[in-house]
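We modelled the chain as a single entity of 262 amino acids. Its sequence is:
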Amino acid sequence: MIEVKNINYFIGEKQILKNTCFNFKKGKFYGILGPNGSGKTTFLDVLSGYKKASESEIYIDSKELNQYTNQELAKKIAIVPQKFDIVFPFSVSDILEMGRFPYKTRFKGLKVKDYKIIDDVVEEIGLEEFLEKEITQLSGGEEQRVIFGKALIQTTPILFLDESTSNLDPYYSHTLLDIVKKRVVEKNITVIGVFHDFNLATHYCDEMLVFEDGKIVESGLTEKVLTSKKLEEVFRMKWRHYKADGDIFVFPKKGGENEKNY
């Protein structure tokens, strides 16, 4: 689905991504972990085409990323960012309809099937009460639910989540990720999400990648990664591991228990 070969990305003379390689498969939910500044968000930005890496080879469905038009990419990849920066008071309905813009015919409005997709997502997420409100009037959590809805309305085979649940309470974090996971299983989409909450990621991610200093230093099945020594080295912490209902949970050891030279 997505083949990544040797991404190198620089800001000035500082190298942010270093020979980063990975192959993402259809029908998988991938989680990305790593400390602040390790290159996680930049990696998603480069994969989406938002940032251009001159030294890189990225293929989506065997076609080079730079060969896609913006409209074609918008039919392939939807993104839920951590923060959606918008100051114009669009209505929630307007924001949601933007999710269908890649499919619009020039000089024509949305079709009946587009509105059906929008209505289905509105009901699924529970956005009915917000439709006539301005996006600028919503709380951070309410706004994030709308942006999730817009991304799902795009109906793309690839979905990027960049710390997308950071503004959500536990109920909506799990509700929305349940909806996303259902699409992974039933519609064979590929999801790549950046997480800081390991125990949220473990519920949904099939595989995990760990970033450190612009490189993928560990990857594999979720349980393998969460119990690896590399995770302790990267985060400079020891972890306690627990298993329940088939999931593994990790908790940092406190105080002096973490004293160790890595």
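As a brief sanity check on the tokenised model: Residues 2-258 form a domain with the Rossmann fold fold (CATH 3.40.50.300). The longest strand covers residues 14-24.
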